């Protein structure tokens, strides 16, 4: 039986060109390689799953490549590249600062740094989660980081830049990685689905991208989970069932009922949501997001802020025409107030019911 490789590993970028949504960083690194202006220390910071360690590995492989392409990418054919691809390179050293965070660990590292590379020009030290180093370890690392041997390059990666002491920051070139947008994640998931011969509805991919919260690794993990659930054909319903996400249709139906001042149907719809096992807090935050999305559809200038596509986008536009801006704003204020009070409330269901009844009567007052 063939070993399964998770998509996050199988489709991990191996060139700067294949890195998703970090064009400014990859082009800067490529230009530095082209002009041979390599710093001795880099700090890659940003949220989880956006490509920090991946870019560090690509950069380490590229600067040691003996036969760069015209686009300043690694050739993947020379001895240095092939040894890196097969995980037997002695030039690239990866350390996890979470488990190597003592002064002794840093001393071992500084002793190792003195040894020149056997193949290639540079020894690259990638230190992941560097914010986990102790204060003493940071101080022990300072001198080596400031004046390493000519063959040594350090790439530090962290999700919590604010925990790194200023004296370390001042010795590094700092690159801030962006959260990956819903459109970019959806596009990459379409590529992965096509490569794996998986048929999937675009609305389903959009839900996965939103659930991933800007992290490509999370999106690919969710995608694998849903493929295990549904097989080679994935529908929008499969995605919302597996991820326990409230269907857009509930929110569209609720707003229509709000506009008709139909308190009875609003209460029945909310009860139906609870019967299906959804958490009340999850519902009210989802309602706030939906009202916000309808509001941004009121103006053609802000419609680009809506991170959905296809038929659902048209539904938002249609509902935006029916709903008045003042109603949407007042409804948002009520739902947000309910969200803030939710944790403190002793009767959480009643709190939400009062909020949706108030929203259902907003247009009634005006009439």
Fourth-level CATH superfamily of the largest domain: P-loop containing nucleotide triphosphate hydrolases
Helix content: 40-55%
CATH class membership of the largest domain:
Alpha Beta
Low-confidence stretches: none
Commentary on this structure:
By secondary structure, the chain is an alpha/beta fold. It folds into 3 domains: 7-176, Rossmann fold, CATH 3.40.50.300; 182-243, Helicase, Ruva Protein, domain 3 (Orthogonal Bundle), CATH 1.10.8; 248-366, Zinc Finger, Delta Prime, domain 3, CATH 1.20.272. The chain has 18 helices and 7 strands. Helix 12 (248-259) packs antiparallel against helix 13 and helix 16 (325-341) packs antiparallel against helix 17. The chain starts with 6 loop residues before the first helix and ends with a helix. 35% of the residues are buried.
